[in-house]
Amino acid sequence: MLAVYVSGHGFGHATRTAEVLKAVRARAPGLPIAVRTAAPPFLFEGVVPGPLTVDRVVCDVGLCQKDALTIDESGTVKAWRAFMAGWEALVVGEAAWLREAGARLVVGDIPPAAFEIADRAGLPSVALGNFSWDWIYDHLARREPGLAEASARAREAYGRAGVLLRLPFACDASAFRRVEDVPLVVRRPAISKDEARDRLGLDERPAVLLSFGGVGLPGLRPSAFRDLRGFRVLFTGKGADGPGPPHFTKLDDAAVRAAGLGYPDLVGAADVVVTKPGYGIVTDCIGAGTRLVYTERGDFPEYPVMVEEMPRYLPAVFASNEDVREGRFDSAVEAVLRLPLPAPPRTDGAAVAAERLLSLL
């Protein structure tokens, strides 16, 4: 059995891990896969064929956030301390479960506890990711000293991993004993752009998708977008409640499913995605050939790495948080639509990672 621990922070960790597991399944049809995560099960179920189990296990803290653009640093300290109070019980319980379940390899994207759990169970482990939480916490500890302890504890746990499969948009990986680089892991639309637009009832106007993950943008006002009549504006997630102009559409999960669409299909239907830059949504845009307008995401150290690297892979233009919240990003959308798409990058990271995992099994 392959046991997989996935961070519940945002959706990006889960969606890219699911792509890797889908590639594993294509090569090993009968291999049991067990996912342990606080992320929503639907990110794996229906993506990775069985035999598959997805069990809710809170295996890390990540960051607490007030909304998709605002980090709650003091809340993260409190959450980490509460998590550490149960750390030993989590490690002991999960290690026992791994032995009883017959696991042979542990993969983590990228909760520190996964690697201490594997070590305690006497199993090899593989990390997957473009950043690690020790690096994030160390950066934030300059303002929140309580996160220095979190950084040190995470770094110690990461040192127990056998190897890190490091993705592009890579950040500091010095906590790991061994690093192997793999290409981009991306999701692709299942249907054509024209078909997706037809199912969404889009006309010839450029479609702009506001994408802020599972956290969303609570308090966002649909009326703020009344002057963007030259575009169709689509919004998914939390926030944007209340009436809006005719060219603004809030899509809930039920509406997307009813249209027979997955999230990559929404990205593919759009001409431009407006978002905070993180691995998941950026690679969704790369996979769909969709342009990007990005905004700040607080003092998150992955942000400058993404900003520096994104132009290699797709057209990207900046808009401030205020302009996004107030619907004043028309000039940014127009600017990014004028930019050419770069040469397609290598995007077979899921296959490369899957082959590596199976070689270790």
TL;DR of this structure?
By secondary structure, the protein is an alpha/beta fold. Helix content is about 40%, strand content about 15%. A 7-stranded parallel sheet has the order 3-2-1-6-7-8-9, sandwiched between helices. The protein has a 6-stranded parallel sheet with strand order 12-11-10-13-14-15, with helices on both faces.
Structural overview:
The longest helix has 16 residues, at 12-27. Helix 1 crosses helix 14, helix 3 (87-101) packs across helix 4 and helix 5 packs antiparallel against helix 6 (146-158). This protein has 14 helices and 15 strands. 38% of the residues lie in helices and 17% in strands. The relative contact order is 0.13. The protein is an alpha/beta fold and 361 residues long. The chain has helices at residues 12-27, 73-85, 87-101, 113-121, 133-140, 146-158, 193-200, 253-258, 263-269, 279-288, 302-309, 321-325, 330-337, 349-360, and strands spanning 2-6, 33-37, 52-56, 65-67, 70-71, 105-109, 125-129, 163-166, 179-181, 207-211, 232-236, 248-251, 272-275, 291-294, 316-318. The protein is globular, with a radius of gyration of 20 Å. A 7-stranded parallel β-sheet has the order 3-2-1-6-7-8-9, sandwiched between helices. A 6-stranded parallel β-sheet has the order 12-11-10-13-14-15, sandwiched between helices.
